[in-house]
TrEMBL record:
Domain Gfo/Idh/MocA-like oxidoreductase N-terminal: residue ranges: 32-148
Source species taxonomy: Bacteria, Bacillati, Bacillota, Clostridia, Eubacteriales
Gene3D superfamilies: Dihydrodipicolinate Reductase, domain 2, NAD(P)-binding Rossmann-like Domain
Span of domain GFO/IDH/MocA-like oxidoreductase: 167-277
One Gene Ontology term of the molecular function aspect: nucleotide binding
Top-level lineage group: Bacteria
PANTHER family: PTHR43054, SCYLLO-INOSITOL 2-DEHYDROGENASE (NADP(+)) IOLU (PTHR43054:SF1)
Entry protein name: Gfo/Idh/MocA family oxidoreductase
């Protein structure tokens, strides 16, 4: 094992220790009063992680459904329940809003909350296109608030370790980033029931729902590619359900693969002339393994919380307190959206139902 590889791996371990010690600082313990928008499972995952932060207070929850908002309020101890976005925006006792509504709603809801003076943590993809994203950041800047994309991998200690360890791999040659997960809603679509996840007008699909994790990881590790070649396939009258992207970085290439129709347990891998790194899963990495050329594999010991959405809450609160700079996160979100725009253009993803003959159909 080369000294460069060992040095990079040791630095990666040290960075993870420092990364985990960074939390719960700033603001002198003052509460950050949150509201949530949305009622699906990701909201509860968020709350499970957020409540670990000593400054997090759940002030209110919002859903269009009175029944769902009452359930969330009771389950998580929110002080108020809203079915009106206008009333939520007008609430002076809310400092920040976590948005986990359908993708198509993100931009309008985020801008409404930011214009009301509230910081916004918005689920991925934060917008449907670069034009929307620009309007969102403009609203944040004009109103003096923080806007952050809730991309779990961007705040994971494992991603920080991978970024640190890349320098020990020598000249990079190839990377594979994959996220394939059988959607629990797919059987309902097969029965003729179209839920939000399979309704193209909701701004979802394989690319925007899970391929976004692969794209974001690519730009976090390597920056924007020089060129891409994208392919995808649609369910008849529905979303893009599988896709792939081949990205070029000069003498280095990256392949992305994503699907909502089957499970894959393939780890991500980055290969260089001195060795390789395996890590995963791409959406929320928990393990990193070094595979040196001619040497024995070594796994980086990571202590990552089971409720790993804590890390994005920690960084978001630090941003809102002015204890952390947000330029890097903004750059990653903008670069990822530019890649998503290019993929959508090549695959012809327009958030409309595609019938056979309008593109590569799966059935």
């Amino acid at each position: 094992m080369s000294k460069d590889v060992l040095r990079a791996f040791s630095l990666a371990k040290l960075r993870v220790i420092r990364y985990n010690l960074r939390g719960n600082k700033g603001g002198e313990g003052n509460p950050m009063r949150f509201a949530t928008i949305g009622s699906n499972f990701i909201v509860e995952n968020f709350l499970a992680g957020a409540r670990l932060h000593r400054e997090f207070v759940l002030e209110a929850v919002y859903s269009r459904s009175p029944e769902k908002v009452r359930r969330l309020c009771g389950a998580w101890g929110a002080k108020r329940a809203y079915t009106s976005l206008e009333a939520l925006a007008a609430d002076p006792d809310i400092d920040a809003v976590y948005i986990a509504s359908p993708n198509v709603c993100h931009a309008a809801q985020a801008i409404q909350m930011m214009r009301a003076g509230k910081h916004v943590l918005c689920e991925k993809p934060m917008a449907l296109c670069s034009e929307e994203l620009t309007r969102m950041y403009t609203a944040a800047d004009e109103n003096g608030v923080v806007l952050l994309e809730a991309m779990r991998s961007a705040h994971s200690p494992a991603t920080a370790a991978v970024r640190q360890a890349l320098g020990g791999l020598g000249t990079l040659r190839h990377a594979d980033l994959s996220y394939c997960q059988y959607s629990s809603r797919y059987p309902r679509w097969q029965q003729g029931v179209v839920l939000n996840a399979f309704d193209p007008s909701m701004g979802g699909g394989a690319l925007m729902d899970i391929g976004v994790y692969c794209v974001h990881m690519m730009v976090m590790l390597f920056g924007p590619p020089r060129a891409i070649e994208a392919k995808g396939a649609f369910l008849p009258g529905s979303i893009d359900a599988v896709g792939s992207v081949h990205a070029q970085y000069g003498g280095f290439t990256v392949d992305l693969r994503y699907s909502k129709l089957y499970d894959s347990h393939q780890l991500c891998e980055v290969a260089g002339e001195e060795g390789a790194l395996a890590f995963g899963p791409v959406g929320a990495p928990r393990m990193v393994r070094l595979l040196p050329r001619g040497g024995r594999p070594r796994e980086l010991g990571l202590e990552i919380l089971p409720q790993d959405m804590y890390y994005e809450v920690r960084d978001f609160i630090a941003l809102a307190r002015g204890a952390l700079g947000g330029a890097l996160y903004r750059r990653w979100s903008c670069q990822a959206m530019q890649v998503l725009d290019a993929v959508r253009a090549q695959v012809k993803i327009d958030f409309c139902g595609h019938m056979p003959g309008e593109g590569w159909s799966l059935l």
